[in-house]
Amino acid sequence: xxxxxxSVHLLFLVIMxxxxxxxxxxxxxxxxxxxxxxxxGLLDPSHRLSSWDGDxxxxxxxxxxxxxxxxxxxxxxxxxxxxxxxxxxxxEISHSLLDLKYLNYLxxxxxxxxxxxxxxxxxxxxxxxxxxxxxxxxxxxIPPQLGNLSRLIYLDLKEYFDLNAYSDExxxxxxxxxxxxxxxxxxxxxxxxxxxxxxxxxxxxxxLPSLSELHLSSCGLSLLPPSLPxxxxxxxxxxxxxNNGFNSTIPQWLFQLRNLVxxxxxxxxxxxxxxxxxxxxxxxxxxxxxxxxxxxxTLILSENDLNGEITELxxxxxxxxxxxxEHLNLGFNKLGGILPNSIxxxxxxxxxxxxxxxxxxxxxxxxxxxxxxxELYLSNNQMSGTIPxxxxxxxxLVAVDVSENSWEGVLTESHLSxxxxxxxxxxxxxxxxxxxxxxxxxSSEWIPPFKxxxxxxxxxxxxxxxxxxxxxxxxxxxxxxxxxxxxxxxxDWFCKLDLELDQLDLRYNQLSxxxxxxxxxxxxSSVYLxxxxxxxxxxxxxxxxxxxxxxxxxFSGPIPLDIGERMPMLMELDLSYNSLTGTxxxxxxxxxxxxxxxxxxxxxxxxxxxxxxxxxxxxxHVDLSNNNLSGELPSSVGSLMFIVILTxxxxxLSGELPSxxxxxxxxxxxxxGGNRFSGNIPAWIGQTMPSLWILRLRSNLFNGSIPSxxxxxxxxHILDLAQNNLSGSIxxxxxxxxxxxxxxxxxxxxxxxxxxxKGREDSYRSILYLVNSIDLSNNALSGDVPGGLTNLSTLxxxxxxxxxxxxxxxxxxxxxxxxxxxxxxxxxxxxxxxxGMASLTFLNHLNLSYNNLSxxxxxxxxxxxxxxxxxxxxxxxxxxxxxxxKCPGDDEALNPPGGDHEDEDEDGAEFEMKLFYLSMGIGxxxxxxxxxxxxxxxxxxxxxxxxxxxxxxEWIMLVIQLNVARLLQWKLNLGRIQSRT
Length: 981
Fold this sequence. Notes:
Blueprint: H1 2-17, H2 29-41, E1 42-43, E2 63-65, E3 72-76, E4 90-91, E5 105-107, E6 130-132, E7 154-156, E8 186-188, H3 201-205, E9 213-215, E10 238-240, E11 262-264, E12 271-273, H4 284-290, E13 298-300, E14 305-309, H5 311-318, E15 327-329, E16 334-337, E17 351-353, E18 358-359, E19 375-377, E20 384-385, E21 399-401, E22 406-407, E23 410-411, E24 424-428, E25 439-440, E26 454-458, E27 478-480, E28 487-488, H6 492-496, E29 500-505, E30 510-513, E31 520-528, E32 533-536, E33 545-549, E34 554-558, H7 563-566, E35 572-574, E36 579-581, E37 596-598, E38 605-607, E39 621-623, E40 628-632, E41 645-647, E42 652-655, E43 669-671, E44 676-680, H8 684-688, E45 694-696, E46 701-704, E47 718-720, E48 725-729, E49 753-757, E50 760-764, E51 773-775, E52 780-783, E53 797-799, E54 804-805, E55 821-823, E56 830-831, E57 845-847, E58 852-856, E59 877-879, H9 901-937, H10 939-980
Parallel strand pairs: 3-5, 5-6, 6-7, 7-8, 8-9, 9-10, 10-11, 11-13, 12-14, 13-15, 14-16, 15-17, 16-18, 17-19, 19-21, 20-22, 21-24, 23-25, 24-26, 26-27, 27-29, 28-30, 29-31, 30-32, 31-33, 32-34, 33-35, 34-36, 35-37, 37-39, 38-40, 39-41, 40-42, 41-43, 42-44, 43-45, 44-46, 45-47, 46-48, 47-51, ...
Antiparallel strand pairs: 1-4, 2-3, 49-50
Helix pairs in contact: 4-5, 9-10
């Protein structure tokens, strides 16, 4: 691509310098006036056009004149990065440009024309050969008048539009106008909305016989034609069609463009096998001879849905007499199989990106042949085996990422000894896969020939000590040694490296001691030290740290009162599972960018201060659970407009819930269980929090009735109001909780929550979205069990125990097909147990004890397994299995007239048992007489049998006698030895 652009610029250089060089002509007066009018219309905040003064306009910045005629033929007003934001031109483009009749080069790119339309009169600059309006913040459609520029060779309209003014009008772009650009070689329309041209775009560009470069990425094209409408694209060398979402297979014509050098089809939803692009009638050997792929230098097919193996593709690419391929990117697909050894024949390969696929097997030893390779990315596959030492032969390698696989064996300095240009190294195993045995065994005496900037060694054995070979890596800015079985302390030499890190990740090790304070960090840096044995007071580092995770360590003492002033950039703070004491610092409220605040499972005490004090906060997750916090919930919590999860469980908080909490309208999880909150459950919870998934208020002092407004929480999956002082009836509208009657959607909620299920408390995290529960137990609720609850078809737990409920168990209880736990114990329920309960096939915990239920206990299906009599304890009027009380008629004869089906089943079972015993008796008789009868009838068999028995008896007696004799001899010898001593 770069070669093609360079050739275009060279062409213009020839054009501009053509003619006899005997003198340099002066600027044309009319053209100077035209330029001054152009300057007058432009906004130039940085005075870039201050040089546009004086008589000779050919010396003005951005203006180039012909040496022979003096006519302006080149105008370059492109904004450069060095010019800054204020260096961008704005305003209007004057019609005076038309007076520059010899203009063949116009560049207005990288400016800010603030949504004005592209001037139509540019299409009248008939001598233009180069036009660049990219990223100039225009708006509207591409004027079709540009199609009049028949001499145009280079046209770049990449992202010509202003993102703030990209209206529906821009969606009307078509490509009919390009048919007049007969000389065009380079066309870039990246980002332009060409959705209306989806059906004919390929036909339109095929009318440009000289086209060598085509960029149509992110153009909204939905159709990738299966065939070429003509063969005019024979000159095409660069084709970029990425991010269009074609949703098709790779068409065959793409790999028949014999001069193609660069092909980019990334982010296009392409499916099927790459081999589908090869004509069915063309053998792979013929493809090699045709050279269809042999000129290809760059092939990018990443971020698609391609599947199958790549062995044959690599064989074709490597089979060329002189393979030109330099960049191969097939990442983020569904490709599988092994990497073939032929990959080592791609001698010119500089980057190989195969990450995020399903490749298996090991890295081919032939990888060492790729002497020009600079980038190797194989992460997030299913590869295994050992990493070959030939990797160390790639002395041009700059970046290696083979993380998130299943490597084993030993990696030594031999794998790295020749990688003198190496900057990025990532080797890790997938932490979710067991029995991974990769060992990083690098000598502490070894001095690497490279200076790393990025190092990741994860889920492999790096320890037991902190890797000493890093002692000269003083250019590191990212260090990840996650789950490396490293113990001991962080060595002093590490601090002396004077690193400035953007990420330090030492999670899941056994590091101990105090953390050194001299560590320096860059802006927006991250520190992850969770699950170690670090101790001492909390370390507060550079004010640049934005993410600090010290979870699961042994830190003690108070949280520094000035944490908000010393670390003002914090976005994530996790201090959970330590031994911190003291109170919550008020300065936390000054962390206006804080998104997550986790300080659970410590020993914090005192009240929660007015941390936010009415100032809007970006906090999304707050977890202060399992501490000793007391007092009321501060009203400033209502300032957390973006909060999604609020967890304050297992503290000593009291008082009523502040009304300001209803300002938190996007809450999905409220967990205030295990406190001393009192008063009524606010009705506004159901009115102002439509996204609530979890409402857990158990083990508090709430009183009054359950507000019917909670029935409006259509997303609710867990409702836990147990162990309070609630009274009144259960709202019948709870059966309208549609979140408990629908399947899980794409959104999967994750969080930490303890839920009482199956008679015990279980903690859930990654599968919390699967838990559907209603727990209203241990209150003073009365009235009937609402029949509408049986509409909640995905409900997994229903606990209404320890209340004053009366009436009958809803007869449609069998509709709760997902129910696993049902506890209605310790109420005053009466009547029979519905027969439909036997159809609850998922039920594994049932408690109906201490009620007034009556009649026969249903049998069959899942109830057969629930045979613990305590399930039905203290229901005097119940009878039948599994309790001992018999129902009337159980002692009568089998199959009585008018008997029910249960008696018939028992008769059938008794008959089957008799048949079983009869069959066993017949089998015993046949087996015994099959042996004994033969011995009685056949005399020769009988004699042989008894001779064998006699010989066996004689042999056993002989063995016994020999062993007895040896024992006696041993005792005799032992007595002699003792007598001598």
